[in-house]
Inverse folding.
């Protein structure tokens, strides 16, 4: 059994220990020490990384009470080494994990929610509750969780005897055997868990929900805490500054400024569509009626809807096929319409001759043509004869 320093003091990240064994394992070495501050994966919290002497520890796992440090190089058996856990990583994880206890404990206390799923990294935790919470409840939950942080409550570890345990009500995520380790945040949570936590809630700093959605009859909440919550808030703040400069609006008025912009955009789009309609009507008006085909060429400014409308209107003025082409030589978007021929048949030789693509109904076909204007005109005129 490895002596587990992380259970004695979760804030301790530096220590010395003796190397008991070192075994080669898949491009790495599994090192066992007599004692360690490296926490192996457990309770949903990933295993620690850091340094042992001059070699890097990539990950830490536990097998039968023995902690295995997966190292980038070998260490001499019997040697004394100094260990340094990646403090930033471990603290970020403990902040999120400890924050998760507060959120789950509070949701359990207030609304009887059971935590039925939990996944975490140093960036965020995803929590699944078995009950739905509405927007108001979610907002209250986030606030109450932060109030528990501000109260700087102790986070205590209890190791009750089986007799004592029988009289205690606590949350647990799975059936446990052996010595049960309870994590207590007075008035907030009592939960079985094997991971190291912050010694008090104050060090969690901040709890922030970044997503919440209904999930399998309950809720899935994504939360950040501590460093990750601060970094997310700082990134959002920087985004807000950029938007504030773009909109020339105060940070507090960004939604309103964006709303005004969207309204203006909608009005402009409506005006554009009206102008486009008028323009298309003029094009139709000045196109003479014919018994054969019509080919109309435009620069690429017209919308797909306008091209369809235009082709449909021109089909009324010709006995053959009306083709509307928008773009330039070699890259035309086109719509073909007809009142007299089945375009699904007609378009096959058209596509073959003019490097065309696309399809549609017997009355209308949309696609593209890779030929030049001259080639298209000659093809359409040839059809007239
Ligand atoms: Zn825990």
């Amino acid at each position: 059994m490895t002596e587990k320093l992380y259970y004695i003091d979760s804030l301790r990240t530096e220590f010395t220990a003796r190397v008991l064994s070192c075994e080669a394992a898949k491009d790495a070495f599994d090192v066992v020490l007599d004692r360690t501050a490296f926490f192996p994966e457990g309770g949903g919290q990933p295993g620690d990384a850091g340094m042992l002497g001059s070699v890097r520890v990539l990950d830490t796992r536990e097998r039968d009470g023995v902690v295995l440090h997966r190292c980038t190089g070998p260490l001499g058996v019997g040697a004394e080494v100094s260990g340094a856990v990646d403090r930033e990583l471990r603290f970020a994880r403990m902040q999120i994990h400890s924050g998760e206890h507060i959120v789950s404990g509070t949701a359990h206390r207030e609304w009887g929610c059971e935590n039925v799923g939990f996944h975490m990294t140093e960036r965020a935790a995803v929590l699944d509750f078995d009950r739905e919470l509405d927007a108001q409840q979610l907002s209250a939950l986030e606030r109450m969780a932060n109030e528990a942080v501000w109260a700087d409550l102790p986070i205590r570890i209890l190791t009750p005897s089986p007799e004592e345990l029988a009289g205690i009500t606590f949350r647990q995520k799975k059936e446990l055997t052996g010595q049960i380790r309870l994590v207590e945040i007075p008035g907030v949570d009592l939960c079985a868990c094997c991971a190291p936590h912050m010694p008090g809630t104050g060090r969690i700093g901040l709890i922030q929900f970044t997503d919440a959605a209904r999930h399998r009859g309950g809720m899935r909440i994504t939360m950040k805490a501590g460093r990750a919550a601060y970094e997310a808030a700082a990134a959002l703040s920087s985004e807000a500054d950029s938007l504030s400069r773009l909109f020339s609006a105060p940070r507090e008025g960004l939604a309103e400024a964006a709303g005004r912009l969207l309204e203006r955009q909608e009005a402009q789009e409506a005006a554009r569509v009206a102008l486009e309609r008028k323009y298309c009507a003029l094009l139709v008006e000045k196109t003479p009626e014919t018994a054969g085909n019509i080919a109309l060429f435009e620069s690429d400014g017209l919308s797909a809807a306008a091209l369809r409308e235009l082709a449909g209107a021109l089909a009324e003025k010709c006995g053959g096929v009306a083709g509307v082409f928008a773009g330039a030589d070699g890259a035309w978007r086109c719509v073909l319409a007809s009142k007299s021929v089945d375009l699904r048949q007609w378009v096959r030789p058209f596509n073959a001759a003019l490097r065309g693509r696309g399809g549609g109904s017997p009355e209308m076909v949309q696609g593209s043509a890779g030929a030049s204007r001259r080639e298209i005109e000659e093809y359409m005129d040839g059809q007239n004869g």
